[in-house]
Amino acid sequence: MRRGATLAMIIAAVGMLGATGVVWLNRDDVDGAPAPAAPTADVVARGEYLVRAGSCFGCHTEPGGAAYAGGRAIETPFGIVHAPNLTPDPTGLAAWSSDDFWRALHNGRGRGGRLLYPAFPYPNYTRLARADSDAMFAYLKGLAPVAKSNRPHALRFPFDQQAALAVWRALFFRPGRFDTDTARSPQWNRGAYLVETLGHCNACHSRRNVLGATAGPLDLAGGLIPIQNWYAPSLYDNREAGVGDWPASEVVALLKDGVSARGSVQGPMAEVVARSTQHLSDDDLRAMASYLGALPGPADKGPSAPDRATDAAPNARGAKLYETHCAACHGDNGEGVAGAYPALAGNRAVALTPPANLVHIVLRGGFLPTTTGNPRPFGMPPFATVLSDQDVSDVLSFVRASWGHRAAAVSPLEVSRYRGAAPR
Which is nearest to 363 in space by CA: 416, 316, 411? Predict the structure, then answer.
C-alpha cells in the first residue's frame, strides 16, 4: 500500500513537471495579424478608450505619480507586486513591439518570454481581440515618456521563483479567446466581453483558492478582496450586488455616476467608476447592464448565498450611538436623504456578510467618486478616532437588526481585524 502511494506521488510529480515544461516552453502565442505600421488617429483614440475600459490606470499609476508610469505597490497574500511603467520610455515600453504587448495580454509573458504574475489579470485579458490589444498598445506608445525604472517585486519564497509560477500556470491558466454566444444578442455579447474580459470584474467579484486562483472569468459569486479586506459582493445574488431585478437605466446610472436610485459605490468600486466606467459610452454601459441583468441566480450558479436570517435584536447602546453619530444624516428611521445621504433601511449593503465594507466605511469614511453626473458628491467622515471597536460593533449591530434587517451582529473582534487592515 505504501509503495503504491509513493509510486502514485512520483507519477503525479512527473506529470506536473511535464505540464510545467509545456507551459514554460510554449511560446507559440503570437496572433498572425500584424499591427498597422502607422496607427491612425482613430485607432489611438480607440486604444485610449479600451485602456480606460480595462482600468489600467488604477494599477499602473502610483498615487501622486505620472499616469501609467508604474510603481504602484499591489499587495497580495504572497508578497508585493509592483506595477510596471507603461509609457514609451526605455524604462517602460520603448523597446516593446505590438507582438510583445499581445503576448503579455494573451499569454502572460513579458518581453523575452518571462512569466508574468497574475496580479496582472492576463487570465481575463487572454480573451481580448488582437485588434483591441494593438489599439491599446498604439495609445500607450503615444504617451509622453516618463523615466521611471520598474521596482522589483517583493514576493516570499517560493512565490518569487519562475518555476513556481510555471506550476501555477500549468494548474490554473490556459490561453483562450472570446467566442460569441450565437444564442444571445449582440448587446449581451458586448457586455460579456466588457465584464468578463476587458473589465476583468471577477478579479474582485470572485472567490479565490489558497493559491490565489479564481474559478475563471465567468465566476462572479463574490469574495473577500485579498489584503484590502473589502468584500466584493456576488453579482449573481440580488440580495448582494446582483441586478437581475434592476431596470437597465439604474445599472447604467450606477456605473456612469457612481450613484443611482438603487444604490451607490464605495471603496475599490468607487475607483473603478472614477477611473474607468464613467468614461464608457452609453451603448457599452447598456451592454454591461444587459449581461449583468441576465446572470443566473445563486441557485443556478454556485452555492447559495449565506442565510442572513438571525435572531438579532436592536441593542440599546447601539441605538444611542446611532442617535448621536448617524441619525442627523441617515434619519431616525434609516430613511436617509435622497441625493445626499443613503438610506440604511432596505439597503442591501447593510446586511452583507462578511460586514467588512460597513466597518471600513465607518472607520475610514465613505466617499463616492467624482463623476460628470455627480460632480460634488456627499461624503461620510471617518470615525476611527471617535468610536472604539466596541462602539462600532454596537452601532453596526443595531443597524443590521433594524428597519427590517435581520443580519448577524458584528463583533468587536471583527471590527479590530478590519481596523488593522488598511484598504488601498
Answer: 416
Please state the length of the chain.
424
| Calpha distance 100→30 (Å, rounded) | 8
> Which residue's entry shows cell 438603487?
262
For 262, 323, 355, the CA distances from 390, given in Å and listed in that order, are 31, 16, 15
Cell of 189: 455579447
So where are the chain's domains? Answer: 22-172, 186-293, 316-419
Region of 58 on the Ramachandran plot (φ > 0 left; ψ -120 to 50 alpha; else beta) = alpha
Q: Which residue has the cell 505540464?
A: 19
Question: Between vectors from CA 383 to CA 408 and to CA 238, what angle results, nearest 5°?
Answer: 40
Asked if domains 186-293 and 316-419 share a fold, the reply is: yes
Give one DSSP letter per residue of 236-281, joined into a string. S-TTTT--TTS-HHHHHHHHHHSEETTEE--HHHHHHHHHTGGGS-
Tens of pLDDT, residue by residue over 198-256, are: 999 999 999 999 999 998 778 999 998 877 789 999 999 999 999 999 999 999 999 99
Q: Which fold does the domain 186-293 belong to in CATH?
A: Cytochrome Bc1 Complex; Chain D, domain 2 (1.10.760)
CA atoms within 13 A on the CB side of 166: 17
Whether pLDDT at 314 is above 70 = no
Rg of the chain in Å (alpha carbons): 23
CA proximity to 31, closest of 134, 174, 110, 170: 134
Query: How far is it, in rounded angstroms, from Cα 346 to Cα 363?
Result: 22
Tens-place pLDDT, residues 30-74: 555 555 568 899 999 999 999 999 999 999 999 999 999 999 999
CATH topology of domain 316-419: Cytochrome Bc1 Complex; Chain D, domain 2 (1.10.760)
Residue 367 φ then ψ, to 5°: -135, 125
pTM summary value: 0.87
Pick from 16-20, 97-101, 400-404: least confident: 16-20
Determine the 3-state secondary structure of 154 from DSSP: strand
| Secondary structure letter of residue 356 according to DSSP | H
Cell 490565489 found at: 212
CA 17 → CA 114, 167, 170, 281, 353, distances in Å?
18, 8, 9, 46, 40
Q: What is the pLDDT of residues 258-277, one digit of tens each?
A: 999 999 999 999 999 999 99
